[in-house]
Amino acid sequence: MRKILLATAAGFAAFVADGVAPARAQAGTEVTGQATPTPGITARFNGRYRMYMGWVDQDTTVSDPVTGAKEQDTSNIDFIDYARLFAGFDGVAANGLRYGATLEIRMGSGGNAPGDTRSGLFYRRAWGYVGTPTLGQIRVGSGPTGAVETMHVGHITGFGSGGWDGDAPGFVIGANPSDSYWYSSSGRNNYTKIGYFSPQFFGFDLGLSYGPNDGEFGGDGSCSFANFAGAAPANCDRLDETITGAPLYRAQDIYEIMLRYRGTFGPVGVAVSGGYVGSGVVDNLAPADVSAKGLSVGVGGATVSWAGLTVGGIISGGRANLGAGSFGAASADGTLANLTATNAFTGGSLTPRLDVPGGDNSDMFTWSIGAQYTFGPFVVGAQWSENESAGSQLAGTGKRERTALAIGGTWNIAPGLALFLEYLYGKVEEDNVNIITGAAGTTANNSVDVNLVSLGISFQW
């Protein structure tokens, strides 16, 4: 299967294409380019800096498990900031071929001590494209090169910093309702892949993408055969089979397909998309009573726009887990008795779902609806989303459920200068699991509630 998909991707290179516009309502005949039509190279250097002041009310207190000491608590007030740089170029050949590349550079995520790694920069994503307006586009790399991330429709995030899919959730400790948004998450979609995107025909365009595994960037430079000598080689993205239980949730041979329609009917713009994500999974050779299944997820959404108002919704579901789908160390036999849950609340993660005897093996299901309205320099909007997935999957646990509300606005004061105001409410819950520590078989802290108000300023060039 992998060889067939790679050969197909190579064949698409003969039909390289022009850029595919972001999901929005527009004329069905429009094909958007990513470079100037004049032959030559245009370099670009863009970036943004944002600073937020937040008030957070979050149930995150935990008693000391040994001494039973006074509960710990967190401050309600915090400041966070975040910067990104985008360096790249766009080129046009004399024969009309268009090509280019982008490097996304970000701040480090910080640590526990003042003045630590927040000043460190790293490549978060990198990608390139080559194509023509009439034949389509090939995208390669670890950026927006996947069909679902590039073409999904109905996720309303154009107000404030983006609601639960923006910057403000950086104030939240631990469990996070933003795990709903796997289709837009740069974390989940960061694996290295190749994608083909067709031009529009009568308003329709098609996207296909493939990645051999969920790894990214420099390959297996940090992996060695020593990893296979009894230890779980979880960092080896070329891992195909294992005798341990820990890496079972790793996907391989990930493929995506999306079909999208965009058109206008008088003053009304309509956009609709639907697609599928499938994958294989790392095989477990041990005589285990726990097995994993590859991804099998459908996604669809739509927006309608009129006179500055956009209303939309998106839905997804299938065989996958969200957020807390991983496990910690297991013995060589990978049996249920040796699986231990971890506090792995990775925003937007989408992992293969395990089949665990006695555990919750539910499929994933997510949906959200939202609306935003633009008038002059102002944008206001709201979004409501819910999802459920298997969660920890240990015996006696229930579904992990997330509920999220976002209300916000943007004031575009001047070119490159804006203010954001947002209110976020979120809840994460799962029976018989301590959401804060990840421990199973407990009635303590089975849910976490968050209320967050943030005011932000954005500088963008």
Explain what you see.
The chain has a single domain (2-223, 231-460), classed as Porin, CATH 2.40.160. Helices cover 3% and strands 45% of the residues. It contains two helices and 22 strands. The strands form four sheets. A 16-stranded antiparallel barrel has the order 1-2-3-4-5-6-7-9-10-13-14-18-19-20-21-22. Strands 8-11 form a two-stranded parallel ribbon. The protein has a two-stranded antiparallel sheet with strand order 12-17. Strand 4 (121-132) and strand 5 form a beta hairpin.
Summed over residues and divided by their number, the pLDDT gives a mean of 80
The overall number of domains is 1
Side by side, the strands of the main sheet go 1-2-3-4-5-6-7-9-10-13-14-18-19-20-21-22
* Helix-strand makeup class: mainly beta
Looking at this structure, what is the CATH superfamily?
Answer: Porin
Shape: globular
N-C termini distance: 44 Å
Catalogue the unreliable spans: 1-35, 112-117, 324-347
Seen as an oligomer or otherwise, the chain set is single chain
Output the number of helix runs. 2
In the CATH hierarchy, the architecture is Beta Barrel
- Biggest beta-sheet profile: 16 strands, antiparallel, barrel
- Specify the helix fraction band: under 10%
Blueprint of the fold:
Blueprint: H1 2-12, E1 40-58, E2 77-92, E3 98-107, E4 121-132, E5 136-141, H2 147-151, E6 193-197, E7 204-213, E8 241-242, E9 251-265, E10 268-281, E11 283-284, E12 291-293, E13 296-306, E14 309-319, E15 321-322, E16 350-351, E17 353-355, E18 364-375, E19 378-389, E20 400-414, E21 417-429, E22 447-460
Parallel strand pairs: 8-11
Antiparallel strand pairs: 1-2, 1-22, 2-3, 3-4, 4-5, 5-6, 6-7, 7-9, 9-10, 10-13, 12-17, 13-14, 14-18, 15-16, 18-19, 19-20, 20-21, 21-22
